[in-house]
Amino acid sequence: MSRLYFNEGESFAASTGGDVSMYPAADALFEMILLRLRTFDSFFGPTAKKDDDADPAHWVTLWTSASVLDISERAAISKRLAHLTYSQPPSHEWAIGAMVRQCCDAIDQFLGDLHPHVKLWGARHTEIKEFLDEHASNGWEEIRTENDRHAYRRSTAAPPTSPASSHP
Question: The pTM is what?
Fold first, then answer.
């Protein structure tokens, strides 16, 4: 999901012609990434957990809770995903590549700290390590999402004007 967004999000968002606009696909991928970031933030962070919530301390005894999002990032994600509100900012910018990297680093640490007898996530740890290597080699940490401009690198040219700019 992140790979597809980082590699194709900008072209999806710019694709407004033809039979079907791909802008909704870019938006959906972006919101799914935000949802997963918030989910992992709840899992790894010190947020209050319910009795049936998974907790890293169930698998890693000495796990120290640490959020993968800062307070303002989490609040902005919650506003975008969970609330239909008048206080949606007219413009916004997300350092989505850096946010995903920070989350994957926490996942990597958690999987690395698992007791060796927990084979359940061994393959996932390999996937995360490969993704982190790919993330670094492709410079995905530089990927940003701003207003209606999906998955771009700040160093690229000025944002193009497109009909997609009317989307919330």
Answer: 0.79
Q: Hey, which bits of 8-65 come out as E strands?
A: none
Angle formed at CA 163 by CA 2 and CA 24, multiple of 5 degrees = 35
| 168 residues of the chain, pLDDT tens digit each | 678 888 888 887 777 665 567 778 888 898 999 999 999 999 999 887 888 888 898 888 888 999 999 999 998 888 888 767 776 666 678 899 999 999 999 999 998 888 776 766 777 888 888 988 888 888 888 888 877 678 877 654 444 443 343 334
CB < 8 Å & 24+ apart, contacts of 112-119 = 113/60, 113/63, 114/59, 114/60, 115/59, 115/60, 118/59
Phi, psi of 18 (to 5 degrees): 80, -170
What are residue 152's phi and psi, to 5 degrees? -115, 165
Give the number of other CB atoms < 10 A from CB of residue 113: 13
Distances (CA, A) of 106 to 44, 66, 129, 147: 8, 9, 11, 28
C-beta separation of 73 from 66 below 8 A: no
Six-digit token string for 81:
């995903």
